[in-house]
Write a structure and sequence with these properties.
Helix content is 62%, strand content 5%. By secondary structure, the protein is mainly alpha-helical. α1 packs antiparallel against α2. The longest helix is centred in the middle third of the chain and has 21 residues.
């Protein structure tokens, strides 16, 4: 598994976690990103984090997110019918 795939898996784990387990998933993701900053250049880290956003956008999921982590309360995805 390469770093991008590992990062995507950790992002998905945060987004799919139950509220009681979210803090642990977020800590794992933060730790992974801290290590990535040591192993990779800043530019490579930035691309890896943006890749997580693109993973969802390419799948047609347009929710508020940062680094692939959803920022909303988990409300159902709403698409603009004029742009579907």
């Amino acid at each position: 598994m390469n770093l991008y795939n590992a990062h995507r898996a950790l992002v998905r784990a945060v987004n799919e976690s139950r509220p009681e387990a979210r803090a642990i998933a977020e800590a794992r993701l933060a730790g992974f990103r801290d290590c990535a900053h040591v192993l990779l250049s800043s530019q490579q880290c930035g691309r890896m984090i943006m890749d997580a956003d693109e993973m969802y956008l390419d799948a047609g999921i347009d929710r508020p997110m940062c680094g692939g982590v959803f920022l909303d309360d988990g409300a159902a995805e709403q698409k603009d019918p004029d742009h579907a």
